[in-house]
Amino acid sequence: MELEEIKIKNIGKRGFFRGISDNRNIKVLYTDVKEKVRGRIFSKKGKLYCDDIKEIIHKSKYRIKPKCKYYYKCGGCCYQHLTYDREKQIKTNQAKSLLGLPPESYKVSKIYNYRNSLEFDVSGGKAGMHPRMSPFLINIDKCELMSDEINNYLKETIQKNKKGFEGEVRAVLGDRGVISRWYPKYESKKTSFANLKFGGKKLNGRIFYISPDTFFQANEYLYSGWLKKIKLLILEEKNSFKSALELFSGVGTISIYLESIFEKIKMVENNELSLFLAEKAIDEMALKKNKFDIKKKDLFQKSPVKSDADVLVLNPPRAGLSNKIINFINQNSFKFIIYSSCNYKTFARDIKKLEQYKLDKYYIYDMFPRTYHFEILSKLKKE
């Protein structure tokens, strides 16, 4: 396959850039706008790609040497070849172009060694991740995004015990060390309460319980400030709000942190293991149990019932809100909404469907530096 020249025109989706070669649109990785590169172009599912640049004819002023030795092979990062200032510019412009206004602020802490969790596939004597455009597994003995503790577990435990195992390993970092689970291939990942592995994590004066079987934010360096900002966004209204409803409440991080400013908080979550850990945290801190109403509901298939809560808090996964939840919000009358999203595209889609509310302001928290992901924390107010 011969090398072809590609001119990079603009920024695409999911870390790709849009290039042109012989009047053909090409999705290109590991480049930048205005670069001219030469690489191999291939077709996949009717679209043209280039993920292996062999020559940089015209180089971006932001291009730097990636820190990670696996960068061009592993599918995790997409901006290590650019300065962080350029990455910040890209993410800010992406949010602004869809939302119609700039963020109030942009927060970032460490751009490396910030992750307190790991999810690796293990197969054929390898443990690691898959390249973006390939099914083949890349063996990785160190990830530059992960904390020293997680990397030590990767090196001393996963890499030394990978032979003969086929499946997935998940690990999270608690206050007393790494908690992990190895999921054999072709076996259910569903875990019983009796077999649940978990540990404590102290944050902002609260104790939470985390597990490889449940979700907890991977970047604890920004998590503390993110929680404080949620609280400030509520308190700045200067009105007396008695109750809150949180959808996708997880292990209770937001609701438990906000408990001092509400008389009643309802938490709704799909994962019963997450709710179990939330209740355990409430017990551990001796909080008033009658303040919390904890419900399990499949929020992807079923809509919550009518709510009389004053404030709605939303923190969904990247898929965003289902139409049933959108309809539920439109049929109720919350005084305002706090919506935090790790996918700016589904966030923009969702808020357009809300009939009573408009975007008042938002903040970018870059929980995932060197990747194309970032968190948007927003307040929506009644029109």
TrEMBL record:
<dbReference type="InterPro" id="IPR010280">
    <property type="entry name" value="U5_MeTrfase_fam"/>
</dbReference>
<keyword id="KW-0949">S-adenosyl-L-methionine</keyword>
<dbReference type="InterPro" id="IPR029063">
    <property type="entry name" value="SAM-dependent_MTases_sf"/>
</dbReference>
<dbReference type="GO" id="GO:0032259">
    <property type="term" value="P:methylation"/>
</dbReference>
<protein>
    <submittedName>
        <fullName>Class I SAM-dependent RNA methyltransferase</fullName>
    </submittedName>
</protein>
<dbReference type="Pfam" id="PF05958">
    <property type="entry name" value="tRNA_U5-meth_tr"/>
</dbReference>
<feature type="active site">
    <location>
        <position position="342"/>
    </location>
</feature>
<dbReference type="InterPro" id="IPR012340">
    <property type="entry name" value="NA-bd_OB-fold"/>
</dbReference>
<feature type="binding site">
    <location>
        <position position="269"/>
    </location>
    <ligand>
        <name>S-adenosyl-L-methionine</name>
    </ligand>
</feature>
<feature type="binding site">
    <location>
        <position position="217"/>
    </location>
    <ligand>
        <name>S-adenosyl-L-methionine</name>
    </ligand>
</feature>
<feature type="binding site">
    <location>
        <position position="315"/>
    </location>
    <ligand>
        <name>S-adenosyl-L-methionine</name>
    </ligand>
</feature>
<keyword id="KW-0489">Methyltransferase</keyword>
<dbReference type="GO" id="GO:0006396">
    <property type="term" value="P:RNA processing"/>
</dbReference>
<dbReference type="GO" id="GO:0008173">
    <property type="term" value="F:RNA methyltransferase activity"/>
</dbReference>
<comment type="similarity">
    <text>Belongs to the class I-like SAM-binding methyltransferase superfamily. RNA M5U methyltransferase family.</text>
</comment>
<keyword id="KW-0808">Transferase</keyword>
<feature type="active site" description="Nucleophile">
    <location>
        <position position="342"/>
    </location>
</feature>
<dbReference type="InterPro" id="IPR030390">
    <property type="entry name" value="MeTrfase_TrmA_AS"/>
</dbReference>
<feature type="binding site">
    <location>
        <position position="248"/>
    </location>
    <ligand>
        <name>S-adenosyl-L-methionine</name>
    </ligand>
</feature>
